[in-house]
Every structure is written in structure tokens, then in C-alpha cells.
Design brief:
The chain is an alpha/beta fold. It is built from 13 helices and 26 strands. The chain is elongated and about 65 Å long. GO terms for molecular function: UDP-N-acetylglucosamine 1-carboxyvinyltransferase activity.
Amino acid sequence: MDKLVIEGGRPLSGTIKVSGAKNAALPILLAALAVEGPITYTNVPRLRDIHTTLKLLEILGCASSFEGNTAKVEMCDLKIEAPYDLVKTMRASVLCLGPLLARMGEAKVSLPGGCAIGARPVDLHLKGLEAMGATFDLDAGYIHGTCKDGLKGAHIQFDFPTVGGTENLLMAAALAEGETMLVNAAREPEVVDLAKFLIACGAKITGHGTSVITVQGVEKLTGCEYRIMPDRIEAGTFLCAAAITDGELIVEDCPLFELEAVVQKLREMGMTIEEAEGGVLCRRGNGLNGANVTTLPFPGYPTDMQAQIMATMCVAQGAGMIKETIFENRFMHVQELRRMGADITLDGRTAMVRGVTELRGAPVMASDLRASASLVLAGLAAKGVTEVQRIYHLDRGYERIENKLLAVGGHIRREKE
């Protein structure tokens, strides 16, 4: 098992490049199950979850290759079962259900795993697919779905805008008979990217990026070449890295529109963020101040950037309040930040962060993907040495982040524990 060793207290400076978005790449790769013919994906991040997804696709009958940041996938002999050994490590595996049911009329997918940040039930996925004609049984930890007469278009209203549910039903509806309308659909950029990929393959989709998505089913989807969008969460993490270290970074391939809520908060805290030659320039103005943040579905402030802005507030002047409304167990990084000298008070789903003069290096342990990123940020700003343990979480969402940070002046290295 690896750990990161960080000698903090140094401003970052230079150009840092954003990789492709994991949260867009995973559903877009799994959408290959609904597509006939070869697909070439570019700008694919080299992450553990991507390798797991390609292994899963191979088990389900798709030939694949992955060189550099280009993946190629083609369905050969499609199968219906996604086994526990792979699904347990990656929650996105449940997105097999929609395309397999649409293509094969049957799917058997293990109940999913992933980060332990709270309950993320799949009942909205199943409820929507049932409205399209599927029936489900729970058998020995597997969801077994069938639709002998094929999926039919339906009017589906989500109880709340679920990203995974919207993606699963979007893939299913692309091949369903007739029209499907998804109401109160998720508006996240990664959902939009999936819709754009499906359209490139021949799907008829309108309204993506709004709360009402309409899909006219087609008989088949065909392969294409598609570039995965840049990772807005990685980009936001780099903006916070400039802020917490009092550095100056050019963030290359930074999706400003998709990061609007994060950029707005960082500007409120005193950061200058503006388009510049080669990317987006990020640097401090006159000091750093606390701010109030509430996580919300897009276009609100993303829950995946909550831990990172909390770490940044730890060295800001004054106080800020963070309210987590998406996941009920997403403050596990607080205890580790306190070990580094942070002043954070918890009250249920609300955290009060009071800025301190300096953080101090300490051994800390990552509990989930974004918590890992917050501890790396804190380590970059802290006085002394920080050891971030259990970084296999970090490797699920950041493509060799230590190499990128090293290139802009961070004193950071990977070691075996």
C-alpha cells in the first residue's frame, strides 16, 4: 500500500494540466454495452476505476485496449452478469443495468460498492426501469432484471435529481421503443457528456443540461470517436491548491462554466481567477477569507469539492460554515484535519471552520476519495511533514496527482507504507 509524503509550506507556481473526468468516463465507457461497432475514447484518465471498468467490459464480452489516454472498446459476445468481485470496488458498475436491459433484455448486476460516504440507494434506478417494462428480483446480493418484451418509453419523474439514475435511464431510453421523458433529471456536466456521447452514436436526445430530458428511442447505436470532458473536480482541486499555498497556477484545460459555483466561492474568499494564455490563472489577492458553502446538485456547489474548500478555509482569516446536504457521512476528513491543527466544529451536517495561523504536518489517513484530496492540500500548506496514508482512494480519482504537483513546486513523493 502506498502513501504520500509531503513537505509543506511552499507556494505552488507554474502550469498544471487537468485530466479527463472520471465521473464522465465511467458511464460513457459502460455505454459501450449499448453500442454496435468499435468506439475510440480519447482524454481518458489512467485511474484504477477506469481499469476496473475495462475489466468489467471484457467480462461482459467487450474487447478493449488502453494506451496512453486512449481506450478502444468493441462488443464481441455480450453477456449479462456483472460479478461481485469487480462491482464491489466501484459503485458506477450499477450503470450496466440500463444498457444491458435495453440491448439484451436481461441483466444480473451485483449490488454496488465504492466510497463509504453515505447511503446511495439504487431504488430510483430500478423504479425508473420498472416504468419502462423491466422486472427485478434480488438474488444472493445480485439485482436480476428482465424485460422479455423489450423496454418501452415512459414518463419518469425522479424524487430528486439522481446522477446515476439519470445516466442509467438515459442509456436504457436510447434503445427503448418510443419516447422517454426524464423529469427532475440531474443536470451535472457529466450527465451532459454522456448524452453527447450517445448522440454521437446516433441517439435522439434533447434537453440534457436541463431538468427535463426527452429521448426518442432508436433501433441501434453505432460506434464513434469521442473525447471525454476535462475533470471539473480535479480542476477545482488545483484552484484550491493555489489558494491554500498562496501560489499562482495556470490550470490548463480548466472547465470554467462547469466550475462556476466553485469559482464564485473562491473569488468570494479573495482569489483572482481569470482566463489567461494557456488556461485559467488562479492566485490570491489580499489575503484569504472564510465563506459559507452549501453543497447542492448542479449548478449548485458540488459535494465532491466540499472537503477541498474546507481544507482551504482552515488557513483563511475569520470563519466559514459548510453545510453538506448530499451525503450524510461526508465529514470523515474533519478528524484528520484537526490532527494537523485545524479548528473545525461539527454539528450534524454542518461544519464551522475557523481559520488558524498555520497547519502542522502530521500522519493522517484518507477515508474516501475527496477526503484524500483535502489532506493532500492541507499537507501542501502545513509546516513540516505530512504523511497521507491509504491513498488508494486518491488513485481512484486523480491521475498521479503527486507528479503534477511536483512539477509546480510541491515537495511531494509516493512511498510504500
